[in-house]
Write a structure and sequence with these properties.
The protein has 113 residues and is an all-beta fold. The chain has one domain: Rieske Iron-sulfur Protein, CATH 2.102.10.10. Helices cover 0% and strands 48% of the residues. The protein is built from no helices and 13 strands. The chain has a 4-stranded antiparallel beta sheet with strand order 2-3-4-11, with no helix packed on it. A hairpin with a 2-residue loop joins strand 5 and strand 6. It is globular.
Length: 113
């Protein structure tokens, strides 16, 4: 398997502990989160209605979309639950997660080309 390139997305100090921020990397919107000093990256747009996940909430490793409440696992990008519109529960699909490495104060994310 080919190695994919790592792109510098931010300085570690740009993302305070237990917070998340969006970046555009190689044409993709990526959510980067610092969870108790561990850094994770996944797609920033919800698979339901493209809500901006970086404007949602982070509780442990769960990211909740601000639009309709879809929940995703920060580590794997897996959809935990879809949106709830009244009594109706809709399905949502998994998101991409990305390998992250931190070197000194820089955060790098591996993006497929």
């Amino acid at each position: 398997m080919m190695n994919m390139p790592f792109y510098k997305v931010a300085s570690f100090s740009e993302i305070p502990e237990n917070s998340m921020k969006a970046f555009t990397v190689s044409g993709r919107e990526i959510l980067v989160a610092n969870l108790q000093g561990n850094v994770y990256a996944m797609d920033n747009r919800c698979s339901h209605r493209k809500g901006e996940l970086s404007k949602g909430t982070l509780a442990g490793t769960t990211v909740t979309c601000p639009l309709h409440g879809s929940k995703f696992d920060l580590v794997s990008g897996r959809a935990i639950s879809g949106p709830k519109l009244g009594p109706i529960k809709l399905k949502t699909s998994n998101l991409n997660s990305y390998k992250v490495k931190v070197e000194e104060d820089s955060i790098f994310v591996e993006i497929p080309e």
